[in-house]
Amino acid sequence: MAILLVEDEDGIINFVRRGLESAGYQVLVANDGIDGLAMGLSTDVELVVLDLGLPGIPGEEVLRRLRQRRPTVPVIVLTAKDAVADRVANLEAGADDYLIKPFSFSELLARIRARLRTAGQIRADTIAVGDLILDLAARTVSIDGTVTELSAREFTLLETFARNPGHVLSQVQLLDRVWGYGFDGSSNVVEVYVGHLRRKIGAARIQTVRGAGYRLVEP
Ligand code: CA
């Protein structure tokens, strides 16, 4: 994972890059808006520091297009423009934060750390297995962007599988974790609910391992 710096001024590039690298971050640099947008779309980039005055595509436009494709990546805008109206416009266009030039490195670092902490919390609320994404806060599942409704029990069952992707879970383990210890082990409730899930998320995603149990796979 890396921080992408989109900036055309060598002095600022060197000062920010040196600082971030000595703070332990991997840094990628784009010198214009075209490269900045292309590189910002990579999922290897976990945060973008974006100058607004850029050759190629202006920073405002990079921000707008980046937001359409990667709505959750944190973006900190660097701007020489000190007008309040510009700041408000930037935040409305999807910047998470902004710094007015000239800024101190320690201030930039503090903003980056704050944004990465928040982003980490958002990530911890989802579990992804390939294109299947569980939103633990909303209790919904989406596949390739399409949200599918699950009952509370179905969601808990799928969450149990998703926390152990590729691992075989036995009927007894699933009963304990999803229905609670002591649930009647002779019941076929696991089989029934696995059937429900297969209908909703696609049969190929949950494999039966004969005599052992079930596992969640990426089809
Ligand atoms: Ca510039």
Q: Which descriptor suits the 3D outline? A: elongated
Query: What would CATH call the class of the largest domain?
Result: Alpha Beta
Rounded radius of gyration (Å):
23 Å
The main pleated sheet reads as: 5 strands, parallel
Mean pLDDT: 87
Count of strand segments: 11
Q: SSE order, as H and E?
A: EHEHEHEHEHEEEEHHHEE
- β content, as a range? 15-25%
How many helices? The count is: 8
As for the CATH topology of the largest domain, it is Rossmann fold
Helix content: 40-55%
Decide which structural class fits the backbone.
alpha/beta
What does this structure look like?
The protein has helices at 10-22, 33-40, 59-69, 84-92, 105-124, 152-162, 171-179, 189-201, and strands spanning 2-6, 27-30, 45-51, 75-79, 97-100, 126-129, 132-135, 140-143, 146-148, 206-209, 213-216. It has 219 residues and is of the alpha/beta class. The chain folds into two domains: 2-119, Rossmann fold (3-Layer(aba) Sandwich), CATH 3.40.50.2300; 126-216, Winged helix-like DNA-binding domain superfamily/Winged helix DNA-binding domain (Arc Repressor Mutant, subunit A, Orthogonal Bundle). A five-stranded parallel sheet has the order 2-1-3-4-5, sandwiched between helices. It has a four-stranded antiparallel sheet with strand order 6-7-8-9. The radius of gyration is 23 Å and the shape is elongated. Bound molecules: calcium ion. The site of calcium ion has 5 residues, from loops.
